[in-house]
Amino acid sequence: MSIRIKSKEQIEGIRKSSHLAAKTLKYLEQFVVAGNTTDFINEKAHEFILKNNAKPAPLNYNKFPKSVCVSVNDVVCHGIPGPYILKDGDIVNVDVTTILNGYYGDTCRMYTVGTINEEAQKLIDVTKECLKIGIKECYPGNRFGNIGYEINRYAVSKGYSVVYEFCGHGVGIAFHEEPEVSHVADKNSGKRMREGMVFTIEPMINAGKARTKIDKNDGWTARTIDGNLSAQFEHTIVITPSGCELLTDVYGEF
User: Fold this and answer.
1) pTM for the model
2) What is the mean pLDDT of the chain?
3) Tell me, what CATH number does 190's domain have?
């Protein structure tokens, strides 16, 4: 399948949805605290998205039962919100995808609960830097493989592993589109980026082994194979004539 080139009108629609997704993550900061359940975070996200005249894309997507993904500690991604009570020292990823006027915006970030240990903070810092490194590879004419090549090279140099079983993806008109954006790739591999392409970069970095295992009970929750911590950051990106724009970086953190 070919990679969709979005029109200016489509990009503007995706931008508005992306801004809402980012604002949802900001709104949730006050609720990612010790004593709250992950389901409570989901409820607050759901209310906020609906209040802003949008819909949460994950809800009922391939039978996913909740409105956002909440992944704690060794959960790599696709954590289903539930009765788990957050405690001091937890690291938490919340992944939000909004549908606003038919357009999708997709982003995630890490939160810390109370005081976390030095090892967890280093993992979060390296993961955020991995996303920044991937973003630097986003410009017309570059190959998609260079995103994963540079992310993996940096993560490994810091003693971490990169999850290869999940990847970034095209987004905007649908939840998941072409291309797949691998976070581990050969240098100068893959298709070339062109102006108007919209996709996510969302590296998942593990403190231990790169592999994951899916919980048999729910068929969604992906955990590290060895129980070590995992972290993730994600932005929706559009290729511009001279580089790229981070559609979900409303607060200028990148």
Assistant:
1) 0.97
2) 97
3) 3.90.230.10
